[in-house]
Amino acid sequence: MRRFLSLIVAIPLVALAAATRQEIESRAIALKDKGDAAGALAAYEEAAALDPRLARFQDEIGFLLAVLNRRAEAIQHFERAIGLDARFAPAHYHLGVALWLDQDQARSLPQLQTAASLDPKNASYRSKLGQALEASGQHPDAIPHLRAATTLEPADALAWNNLGAALQKTGDAAGAVDSYRHVVDLEPSNLDARNSLGLMLVNTRRAEEGIAQFQRVLAASPTNNTARFNLGFAFLQKAELDRAIAAFRELLARDPDNAAAHYNLGVALKNKDDIDGAKAELSRALEIDPQLAEAHYMIGIACWQSGEFDGAVKEMRAAVRLRPDYAQAWFMLGTALKQRGEMTPAEEALRTAIRLDPSDPGPYNTLAQILRQKGDVEESKRLFAEGARVKQAKEAELGLTLERK
Predict the structure, then answer these.
(1) Which residues, at least 6 apart from 376, have a Cβ–Cβ distance to it below 8 Å?
(2) CATH code of residue 181
């Protein structure tokens, strides 16, 4: 009889423990919903003590520790949760985010990838993985995850923005325009996204639309240097040189050490045939950024236009020293050397230009002229023919052949 009674007493004790755990978890959830991270953490730790094998509790503890800026402890609990249940996607996701915040990319990405593979219809998982891949330079790999995120959650402006960045960096300008447009539709006050949209519109030959975006940014933030720079760039693309010059000068009044603005102002002045003004701005750009090969190239072009072939050679050589793959600078170096009568080094520079960019017809024709002067008629003919073929192919690619006009 005594033994039977002990069994009867034991049954309600087990039921009481189970009920207590549920009550504790309910209290933890309520505290978490109210924003009391410390209180919720204490409650989850109490619940986990009653059921230490439950992955969900370890993940919740880790999450709350992360909220309380105790990330090292949080990571331990996420890892414990995964050890208890390797298919518990939230723990992989939270661990991936925590490691990313710790700048541990090598360990973070596999966790985010696991979370997304375990729960591929979770928009947050796909968005964060895409964001991490894009930020780490893996732009093509990021795109499908970001596309999935925007399909699953069309109102995720951050996913649209990251998708735009990835598409921009992989050369899909039209796709980037569409993505950035989604961002500004969702967040009209997102000036960074509006700047990006405007720049991609300019790059897709829709400069007027791009200018309208930059003007909207400047209406909201008159000192936005990025928008002012992009506005100047758009005017430069449209050959509205006075407006471009005004935009860059206004920007430089606030940011005098902006090398790119000095460079573009120099280009605008050169295009207005203000050679001295152009050289001054381009030289200032180089003082600020001595690695700016493009500035040497443009000074070289200015020298060429004013008949200073020695200066052109000097600047083109400086440009290719900084950027050995600068095909256009090699072409102009060869052209300037030819003008000085230095045929052998000119030939070498032009062959380098062709090797680096076989799609530019200019070096073929200039090299053909040199070889004709040297008496190599057959090779000269071949290069003239190749230059004509390349030119035709380039025009066809750009839609500029007579048949298409």
Answers:
(1) none
(2) 1.25.40.10
Domain-embedded: residue 210: yes
3-state secondary structure of 140: helix
Which residue, 134, 156, 135, is CA-closest to 144?
Answer: 134
Contacting residues for 277 by C-beta, under 8 A, at least 6 apart = 266, 269
Average per-residue pLDDT in the chain? Answer: 91
In a domain, 279, yes or no: no
Instruction: Tell me, yes or no, whether 215 and 153 share the same domain.
Output: yes
Domain total of the chain: 2
Q: What 3-state class would DSSP assign to 240?
A: coil
CB contact set of 19 (below 8 Å; sequence gap of 6+): none
pLDDT tens-place string over residues 301-335: 999 989 999 999 999 999 999 999 999 999 999 99
Each residue of 92-101: pLDDT tens digit? 999 999 999 9
Do both 102 and 28 map to the same domain? yes
- Let me know: does 74 contact 93? Beta carbons within 8 Å: no
Same domain, 32 and 74: yes
Token duo for residue 13: 């004790």
User: What is the extent of the structural domain holding 214?
Assistant: 143-222
- The residue out of 195, 222, 249 marking a domain boundary is 222
Given a contact cutoff of 8 angstroms between Cβ atoms, the answer to whether 230 and 201 are in contact is no
- What is the distance between the alpha carbons of residues 16 and 174, in angstroms, rounded to a whole number? 63
More confident residue, 224 or 7: 224
Taking residue 16's Cβ as centre, other Cβ atoms within 10 Å add up to 10
CA atoms within 13 A on the CB side of 113: 10
> Residue 398: pLDDT above 70?
no
The neighbour count for residue 121, using CB atoms within 10 Å, is 10
Among 178, 206, 222, the domain-final residue is 222
Residue 323 maps to a domain: no
Task: Give the position of tokens 């900084």.
Answer: 322
Structure tokens that stand for 345 in this block:
């080094």
Nearest to 190 by CA among 224, 166, 228: 224
Q: Is residue 150 part of a domain?
A: yes
Only one residue has tokens 């024709």, namely 365
